[in-house]
């Protein structure tokens, strides 16, 4: 627990609507090269190379959770190593307090901030996960989380496992992008716009937008198993990481309390279907999720008391979603169990 509240971050600005800083280190790791060393949008390109990079995540963070799921589904565990920060951070950085001696065992640093400062000594922005760090130099490469998973799907194909699914198929990309855009604005970030609202008016506006979008998603998913097409795609990964945190955190901590996820039958069944799909539920640690939000956000929860509930065993109840058809992995296959060092606690 962070007993020194002077190092705690501040997440709510009185009287203001929450606005997320979406400026990240936008370098990319790609299989294609250009003469300039940059892509068409001017982003620096790094080469795809096995064992060169380390993905740094935290189990509590939904944005990092996306990268963990994508890496699992595509079978990149032996290609890109995984460093897991603890669930609690302060305003300076995520730290590796779960590891022996409080050091990442590969990078040998106590704080993710060290990798950012190794490359940018005056780095002015937040230290965020997921981040990819070059192992040899110890320098951060990118923390551009939306691009990281897209590049996992498209640029790392030479290292995908046999049977890896198509998470961002070309013929569905326009629709995936469209769905992702509204889900990010209204749901992924929408819960934060509720929780970190600095006024009653901004909270109520975000609340209405969130539940209007959840109603829209309910209607969309009432007749189809997945968000886009008949297989799991990037769109499902992005929605899942918010839904899986809904009852444990957002419903109470962020005041998104019109209904619990368990009281929205279609979305609850959809989320359980994904949770029980290899590569999804086996990345979820509910205790670390709760610790992250309830301990870190001291301006919302100054006591830092972490709730005991809710009972998570309902995630294992049959979803019945297979009656809608669909093929989770398309022509591919489920991933094998996660490496022993990356396993999360069982629910029962």
From TrEMBL:
Return the SUPFAM superfamilies for the record: GST C-terminal domain-like
Q: Which GO terms describe its molecular function?
A: glutathione transferase activity
Mind telling me which PROSITE patterns this protein's record contains? Answer: GST_CTER (PS50405)
Which ranges carry the GST C-terminal domain?
Answer: 169-293
Keywords, ordered alphabetically = Transferase
Single GO cellular component annotation? cytoplasm
In this chain, glutathione is annotated as bound at 94
Highest taxon of the source?
Bacteria
**Sites annotated Lowers pKa of active site Cys:** 250, 293
For this protein, the record's InterPro entries field holds: Glutathione-S-Trfase_C-like, Glutathione-S-Trfase_C_sf, Glutathione_S-Trfase, GST_Omega-like_C, GST_Omega/GSH
Q: Where is the active site?
A: 61, 192
Disordered: annotated segments = 316-348
Q: Pfam families this protein is in?
A: GST_C_2
> How is this protein named in the record?
Putative glutathione S-transferase
> Which organism does this record belong to?
Agreia pratensis
């Amino acid at each position: 627990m962070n007993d020194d509240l002077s190092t705690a971050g501040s997440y709510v600005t009185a009287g203001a609507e929450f606005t997320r800083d979406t400026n990240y280190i936008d370098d990319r790791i790609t299989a294609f090269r250009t003469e300039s060393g940059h892509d068409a949008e001017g982003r620096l390109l790094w080469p795809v190379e096995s064992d060169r990079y380390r993905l740094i995540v935290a189990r509590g963070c939904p944005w990092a959770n996306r990268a963990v799921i994508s890496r699992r589904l595509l079978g990149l565990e032996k290609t890109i190593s995984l460093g897991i920060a603890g669930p609690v951070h302060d305003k300076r950085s995520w730290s590796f307090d779960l590891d022996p001696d409080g050091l990442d065992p590969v990078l040998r640093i106590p704080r993710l901030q060290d990798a950012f400062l190794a490359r940018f000594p005056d780095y002015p922005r937040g230290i965020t996960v997921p981040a990819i760090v070059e192992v040899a130099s110890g320098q951060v490469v990118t923390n551009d989380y939306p691009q990281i998973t897209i590049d996992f799907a498209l640029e790392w194909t030479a290292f995908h496992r046999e049977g890896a699914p198509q998470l961002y198929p070309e013929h569905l990309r326009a629709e995936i992008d469209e769905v992702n855009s509204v889900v990010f604005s209204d749901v992924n970030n929408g819960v934060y716009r509720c929780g970190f609202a600095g006024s009653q008016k901004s909270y109520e506006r975000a609340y209405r937008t969130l539940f209007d979008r959840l109603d829209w998603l309910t209607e969309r998913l009432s007749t189809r198993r997945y968000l886009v097409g008949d297989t799991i795609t990037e769109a499902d990964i992005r929605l899942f990481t918010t839904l899986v945190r809904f009852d444990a955190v957002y419903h109470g901590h962020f005041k998104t309390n019109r209904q619990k996820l368990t009281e929205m039958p279609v979305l609850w069944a959809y989320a359980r279907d994904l949770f029980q799909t290899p590569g999804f539920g086996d990345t979820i640690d509910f205790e670390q999720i709760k610790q992250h939000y309830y301990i870190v956000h001291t301006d919302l929860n100054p006591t830092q008391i972490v709730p005991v509930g809710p009972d998570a065993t309902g995630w294992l109840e049959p979803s019945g979603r297979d009656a809608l058809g669909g093929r989770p992995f398309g022509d591919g296959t489920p991933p094998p169990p996660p490496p022993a060092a990356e396993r999360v606690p069982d629910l029962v």
